[in-house]
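ok trying again, last paste got cut off:
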Amino acid sequence: MGKIPTSFIEYTELFPTFKEAISWELLRQWSLSEVWRIEMKDEGSLIIKQGKGENSREVSVYTQLLIPLELDLPRMYKAYENRGIGILIMDDLKGKTLEEDPQVFDFIAAAKILSTIRNKSRVGILEGKLTDADHSTFYVSEDSIMNDLLYISRQSEFIEANQDLIFKKALDVLPYHLSRLYKEFPVTLTHNDYHPKNLIKNDDGIAVIDWASAYVSPHLGDLYCLIHSAKDYKIDPDDLILAYCEETDGYGAHDIEWQVTMGGICWTIHMLRQLLEYGVEAIPIAHEWIPEMISDIRVLLDKL
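nice, full thing came through this time. structure:
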């Protein structure tokens, strides 16, 4: 038997698989989460994830959102969530992330996969595949976004000189645009961290992992994140937008550039709220990211 990491020892009775593993390989570790690959004597390998605090919610995301919506995602074999701890045993996809091997055609494929996920989720929500309670739990309303913006605007210790003007403009103009977003575009699933590090490519195509931050909303922040990341690799945003629109249905491609801009604003507001509430304590360097993200909001507001 491989040596069980300290953070998993107390859960060995709940997860007998831990005792059967012949080795444990640490893949990623942060203050609120860790990911391991375990090798099994007769069954290949599995991925073991543990999330703490806010990151423990990935268990409920899988059980209450992803599985009911019948999405094609890494298979979950067993899960546990209690008192701010979430543990998942999942398929090991054994591929490279787009961050490790960024290729234009893979980013295009990721844009198409995103469109497919949103289409299927939208239909599933309309068909009532989510319970009313689960829909309510994971739904992010326009009021919630405005409340987050107001909260951020009051965190003066993290806001640089003159950045208060950005919040003044945002608080003034966003209500109109959010009202339009929520009236004109259907609610669907938002991954909320659709970056190359969470997109794995293997023989089966592109797989989306790490759903701990997912929720239900109409905004297109996921495509914004993919486009924003792709710029680091000199990938044309227009190619990704075109790929996304080719796979979408109905009204999904309408006014797409405005949708991406609004998605960027909604995503950035959400992430700033998360950083201010959890990230600054967990990741001390996070306070350095905040002024730049506020500046991103200014740039996006200017595009509306």
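cool. The first strand starts at residue 21 and ends at 29. The longest helix spans residues 256-282.
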